[in-house]
Amino acid sequence: LDGDYFELESRLVVFLAGRLGMRGGEIAHLKEGWIDWHSGMIVIPRHESCTDGRDGGICGHCRGAAKQMTEHNPGLGIEEAERMMWSPKTEAASREIPLEASTRARIVLERYFEKYDEFQASRGVVNRRVTRAAEAADAEVDPESTYPHALRATCASHWAAKQIDIVSLKSMLGWSSYQ
To answer: Which residues contact 81 (CB under 8 A, 6 or more apart)?
Structure first.
């Protein structure tokens, strides 16, 4: 892969998290099938089998989440928990995100999906792309404290400053509650 790919991937991650409010795990599991280009929506599904690991198996992020799930749910076996992966963080996180919220994000998505049919990297790579973007930023941005979830906070602040109502913001970001 060349430098242009890494720049495109970094831009994609920054726009998806920082303008559309996607979580790192959502970005890592993003498929073009989640995007309804006609209606201009990214549709985060309630569940989709994870095949992002080696040889089409479950990825490390989902394996860790499944293990954590079994620790908090006695009687739940690891195989059953792994079959439940991937799913969004909360029920509210299964949502539609309007692409009209950010024309620049839509353009980067279109450029990315002209070449690929799914996001090509792991959850850890999502974090590294955010760090890479922070290091390349003209402004003073601390790469050590910049991560995908911090960009979600930036997204929320951005849209709140543009006076997006709290109900719309809750829906877009997939919050379970207002707190």
So the answer is: 66, 67, 69, 70, 73
